[in-house]
Amino acid sequence: MRIISSIRSLLFALVMLAMSSASFAQIGISISFAPPELPVYEQPLCPGDGYLWTPGYWAYADDFDDYYWVPGTWVMAPEPGLLWTPAYWGWSNGAYLFNQGYWGPQVGFYGGISYGFGYTGEGYQGGRWQNGQFFYNSSVNNVSVTDIHNVYNTTVVNTTTVRVSYNGGTGGITARPTAQDEVAARATHIPPVAAQTQHAQAAHTNPQQRASVNQGKPAVAATPKPGAFTDKAVVPAKAAGAPYKAPAKSAAAKPAATAPAPHPAEPAAHAAEPQRATPPPAPAAPEPQHAQPAARPAEPQRATPPPAAAETKRATPPPAPAEAKRAAPEPQRAQPAAKAPEEKKQPAEKKPPEEKPKE
Questions:
Q1: Is the pLDDT reported for residue 325 higher than 80?
Q2: Cα(349)–Cα(343) distance, rounded to whole angstroms?
């Protein structure tokens, strides 16, 4: 029995290790321009016991080259004793890298970002697990004490006033992991649950959540439950964290590959078409080669024209005069008046011999 128990423990450890490694492959995308600041919004009412608050964050989509807001929401913990470490953006090697959030026994490093509602930039002061039940700190959470009785009230002092949403880089938070964060990083992690993944996907497909559309002030800043974008309890943003304008680099990223130069000149756009696909230039090269054979017929023309030109010169002059001569006699034949006087002269010559016999 001890052997079977040991095998089960080993298998469980391997599964948890695999889950931990999967959740720790957190960097999914790198961007050259920073996300907007965090919008200002209130927390919706907690829907029930066992729900934990997960702050909203800016995610990024390659398909429309823009950041989009994933609303904060209340999520049921995968199992008792687990806490949520929020996602955050960090700066490394000249780019902003996205670090996915995860569930674990302790809250780990989340870039020092002050998300509010108990997430002051380090750790979590919004609640705690006690005897398998989660107790809410009503000083930072919107909880109905008539429905949820496991509540306490501890004042949380948050001295952070900036709403920067990324760590490092120009203007970013300069916080670094503490020793406690390092311990939490080595602990077992569980990736976002299915409800969280679907919640983020719903934000991705909603154009109103894009930063270029809402200017950093999303209409749906928080929801009472994952995916409840049309619920009456949806909370809009009060204001953007700071005036937001889509970076010129993000706006020019697509045209740079497509057409800032082609737009001013239409022929340039035709030239850009072969550049988009590498194969077209290959056929374009043979086409002029097919046109060169058309120039090769000029070589036989060099040999033929001299004889042809000489023959035409020799042949053409003779027919031209011949035709002229034929044309000349025809009018001469048409002169009957010239032949008639010659016939009248002949009887005049016959008269003298008639006179001689008379003598």
A1: no
A2: 11
Separation of alpha carbons 20 and 190, rounded Å: 6
Residue 52 in any domain: the answer is: yes
The domain containing residue 45 runs over which residues? 27-242
- Measured CA to CA, the distance from residue 196 to residue 253 in angstroms comes to 30
Query: Contact at 8 Å (CB) between 69 and 211?
Result: yes
pTM over 0.90: no
For residues 281 and 335, give the distance between their C-alpha atoms in angstroms, rounded to a whole number.
78
pLDDT at residue 336 in the model? 45
Mean pLDDT (whole number) for 250-272: 36
Higher pLDDT, 336 or 104: 104
What one-character-per-residue DSSP string does 212-236 give?
Answer: HHHTT--S--EESSTT-TT-TT-B-
> Considering only 9-23, 42-56, 121-135, 144-158, which range has the smallest mean pLDDT?
9-23
**How far is CA 304 from its chain centroid?**
60
Rounded Cα distance between 348 and 352, Å, is 8
Geometric angle at alpha carbon 277, from 275 and 282, rounded to 5°: 85
Say which residue, 127 or 13, is predicted with more confidence: 127
Measured distance between the N- and C-terminal CA atoms of the chain, rounded to whole angstroms? 185
Name 157's Cβ contacts closer than 8 Å, sequence gap at least 6: none
In 99-138, which positions are buried (b, 16+ CB within 10 angstroms) versus exposed (e)? bbbbbbeebbbbbbbbbbbbbbbbbbbbbeeeeeebebbb
| Mean pLDDT computed over every residue of the chain | 74
Task: Tell me which residue of 136, 100, 74, 76 sits closest to 20, measured CA to CA.
Answer: 100
Count CA atoms closer than 13 A to 99's CA, side-chain side: 20
In the structure encoding, which two tokens stand for residue 9, read together?
């423990």
Specify if 265 maps to a domain: no
Residue 52, burial from CB neighbour count under 10 angstroms (0-12, 13-18, 19+) = buried
Is residue 76 included in any domain, yes or no? yes
Measured CA to CA, the distance from residue 242 to residue 355 in angstroms comes to: 148
Q: Quote the number of domains for the chain.
A: 1
- Whether residue 264 is contained in a domain is answered as no
Whether the CB-CB separation of 114 and 162 falls below 8 Å is answered with: yes
d(CA 222, CA 215): 17
